[in-house]
Amino acid sequence: MARLIAARRTAVVPRNGAFSRLRIEDLATPVLQSCLVDAGIGAAQVDEVILSNALGAGGNPARRVALAAGLPETVAGLTIDRQCAGGLDAILLAKALVDCGAADVVLAGGVESYSRRPLRLATDPGGGPPAAYDQAPFTPWPDRDPDMGQAAEALARRLSIPRNRQEAWAAQSHAKALVADLAAEIVVLNGVARDAFPRALGPGLLARAPILTGSITAATAAVAADAAAVCLVVSDRIAQGRGLALLGGATVGGNPEEPGLAPVAAIRRIWDGSALQQAEIMEAYAVQALAVIDAAGLDPQIVNPGGGGLARGHPIGASGAILAVRLFHGLTQGRGLAAIAAAGGIGTALLVDASGA
């Protein structure tokens, strides 16, 4: 069984902040290297690097990071794009490689620079000038490819999750993040040692937050951000009892018009309702996190004990991997769960065990 024996990340910094000049390899390389140092694994032992990246322009960022980190040139690197779910999916791919015997040591996670994402132009088949666009389509049907904020608002209306409940969850996320000691998981980069966004989110700030759509406000939606997160996944032979056992994982497609609920099917596929000590659920929107918690039957008291994406920000390709990093450093006994939704109606979940049972 594959095990996770080291996990690190950068701080999460809103776009155009302290990480705005950093390339993808500048973000991810020190994190990858820290995982190897923490675990006492040499660069020559690494079989593969799998990284998620959603906003880049190709070029296989995982390969660039592997080379920049001083790994052997034989490490080819694999970059995946499953949008928000990609960082967690990279870890599931690493687990699959190890479980089938194709690899012993895999570095997996995600990296995103919202600040340095490329400008996008769509060519005109009729010969006209290229047209700028910001977001690629997530389905082949425009009428079934909602804006993420509008999809969150539709979910709030359908499930009767009002603005005040969303705001209460956001305020709690920030409050937990402000007091959490996350130093062990964060690699200091550009002098930044803590997530940059958490704040005291009181009633006044919540009331003044700009409305994005309906009940969704700037306070109940995660901000675009830059970050990297990497996990070291190895075989039992290498782990020798260390770390978290990766019990199971699943990625499930659902209704593309309701992406926020997609993780529920993935959670149900790998979790039988037995006791959990910690759950890390991505908070792209407060309503999305609340909807998943309600539908999956999770205990809110164990969810995101160090704060969530509303307090950190959302570095798309890295967000799923950050959930796994949080589990690695927060789970001391029993089982833990991570889950995330992605545009297009995709949900990914990972179940881990601190005892290896």
Keywords:
Peroxisomal Thiolase, Chain A, domain 1, 357 residues, single chain, 14 strands, two-stranded antiparallel ribbon, ten-stranded mixed sheet, alpha+beta, 11 helices
Terminal-residue CA separation: 10 Å
Helical content (DSSP H or I, runs of 4+): 25-40%
For the record, the count of structural domains works out to: 1
- CATH architecture annotation name: 3-Layer(aba) Sandwich
CATH hierarchy class name: Alpha Beta
Mean pLDDT: 95
Largest sheet: 10 strands, mixed
In sequence order, what are the helices and strands, one letter per element?
A: EEHEHEHEEEHHHEEEHEHEHHHEE
Strand content: 15-25%
Oligomer: single chain
The count of helical stretches stands at: 11
* CATH topology assignment: Peroxisomal Thiolase, Chain A, domain 1
Shape: globular
> Which stretches of 5+ consecutive residues score pLDDT under 50?
none
Describe the 3D structure.
By secondary structure, this protein is α+β, with helices and mostly antiparallel strands. It has a single domain, classed as Peroxisomal Thiolase, Chain A, domain 1 (3-Layer(aba) Sandwich). It has eleven helices and 14 strands. Strands 1, 2, 3, 4, 5, 10, 11, 12, 13 and 14 form a ten-stranded mixed β-sheet that branches. Helix 1 packs across helix 2, helix 3 crosses helix 11 and helix 8 runs parallel beside helix 9. It starts with a strand and ends with a strand. The model has no long low-confidence stretch (mean pLDDT about 95).
